[in-house]
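Possible regression after last week's pipeline update?

I re-ran a chain I had predicted before the update to compare outputs. Posting the input and the new output here so someone can diff against the archived version. Not blocking, just want to make sure nothing changed silently.
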Amino acid sequence: MQGRHSKIRVAIDAMGGDFGPEPIVEGAMQALREKDYIPILVGDKEEILSLLPSNFMHKIEIVEASDVIAMSDQATNALRRKESSIYKAVELVRDKKADAVVSAGHSGATMTLATLRIGRLPHISKPALATLMPNLGASKTLVLDVGAVVDCKAQNLYEFGAMGEAYVEKIMGIKNPEVGLLANGEEASKGNELTKEAFKLLENLDGFIGNVEGRDIFNGSVNVVVCDGFTGNILLKASEGVVTTIFSMMKQHIRRSLPAKFGALLMKKKVFTNLKKQVDYEEYGGAPLLGVDGCAIVSHGSSSAKAIKNAIFQAISYTKSDVNATIEELLTESKRA
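New output (post-update):
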């Protein structure tokens, strides 16, 4: 859809987040100040217009949607709720009226609709939700799946490996990325039935280095880590909990000690600011749903304007790249091998 000189069009679910349309509309405007794209805000037109300054009116398109899928609603009902903001946003991509969709709404509904309405890439049986985890190296570690496919087959994990390899190469600019399979030991003999079977399939990928352990995600020794969605989601939530706990513990210890207070003041700008930036979800804004025939970015329900802005940036980068073509190429090549 996107021509060589045309602007990228991003459909944004304006209503789905925990805090209503305000941070989402603000995030779309912040993105516009830095990048030339066309935001299509989907939701309550009157409410959206009330949040837009007059100088942004001509830069933003609005699509009316009278329904909002709440976080407590069942994802399976999403297909029937055709007037919802997320349904209409996804339909814009399906109908080639937008290049990408960004939603901070119900993640299950977003993934269901993106998979079934936009459709999957030809060689993908199930899409995967990918996220970037901080590590000690120069770039982050891509982990997938972190919640899209709870019950996986070996074929799914193999496809996740190909998708992760393509994403890291095309979006993060890492040549010859290394892909690891999450297991309870590095030896090829370790793991459960699923990982042992997946190991054999993943050997078809040039970047596959074998089994990796949980700690390898954070030490920078691998670029992509593959796991089933059940394991990945627990890993993601546990990691978020660890980060929050460590920051809270540091604050407690600093409050109790006068020398620590002075030290913290000295380190505040250089050390703490950089550390927070490295582990901050807002810096990348959302998780791409890899394997759909388009671009879908799933953002956190409590996303701030900054997180939405960065999710939009991610959607623009994804659309400009040839990630999907590379995924197909990798899977076609390995089938020939």
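Follow-up from reviewer: compared with the archived run. Residues 125-254 form a domain with the Isopropylmalate Dehydrogenase fold (CATH 3.40.718.10). Marking as no regression found.
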